[in-house]
User: Which sequence fits this backbone?
């Protein structure tokens, strides 16, 4: 089977008794990673920590930054993570992306395991400088999009149970650690989708509206299972 990615988590585990701020040891680690890239023809990534609190630079030797092809940093703003391209060998740095991480259950041969899944990754031009209001608006936008996608995944002939939709959202929003937070998110998403005309609700029955935009329908409608 073709290898696609090798991850060292964390990079410091590769040093043994050597020091991360030793340029020779850091160069050896980066060189070994490059050799793995050549041997297995795959990407090689090292997970590393920043230095002093509030400092974006990586801990240890400057070799880690200078001798690699790309550097990505990840920060958290509430429930949303912000990824920034600090260095990109074949292009400009500075691009930023916002994404959420949630748990999902995966069926494997031996049963069921819990995995972390990246959701709703989007380019976010001013993510780092976002105000509290902007961050809240961004999170609401993400919650609404997730709620609609979850609903479209359970509809049959254009309708679904309101309670089933709510349960699906609650199960998905494990990053919202309290029931009040999940209730508020679901209520807000439901209201905004109704106002936009994407859904109509009659008792426990939720109907998904059909957009006049064919591309919109194709992007948001689940394929039938054969």
Assistant:
């Amino acid at each position: 089977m073709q290898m696609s990615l090798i991850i060292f988590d964390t990079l410091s585990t590769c040093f043994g008794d050597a020091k991360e701020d030793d340029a020779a040891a850091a160069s050896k680690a980066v060189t070994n990673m490059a050799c793995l890239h050549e041997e297995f023809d795959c990407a090689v990534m090292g997970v590393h920590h920043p230095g002093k609190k509030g400092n974006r630079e990586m801990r240890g030797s400057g070799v880690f930054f200078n001798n690699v092809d790309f550097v990505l940093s990840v920060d958290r703003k509430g429930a949303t993570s912000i990824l920034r391209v600090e260095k990109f060998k074949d292009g400009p740095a500075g691009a930023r992306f916002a994404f959420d991480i949630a748990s999902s259950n995966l069926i494997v041969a031996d049963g069921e395991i819990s995995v972390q899944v990246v959701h709703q990754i989007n380019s976010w031009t001013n993510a780092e400088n976002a105000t509290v209001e902007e961050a809240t608006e961004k999170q609401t936008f993400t919650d609404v999009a997730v709620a609609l996608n979850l609903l479209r995944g359970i509809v049959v002939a254009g309708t679904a149970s309101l309670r089933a939709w709510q349960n699906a959202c609650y199960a998905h929003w494990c990053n919202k650690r309290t029931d009040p937070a999940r209730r508020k998110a679901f209520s807000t998403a439901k209201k905004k989708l109704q106002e936009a005309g994407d859904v109509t609700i009659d008792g426990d029955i939720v109907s998904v509206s059909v957009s006049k935009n064919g591309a919109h329908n194709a992007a948001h409608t689940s394929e039938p299972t054969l």
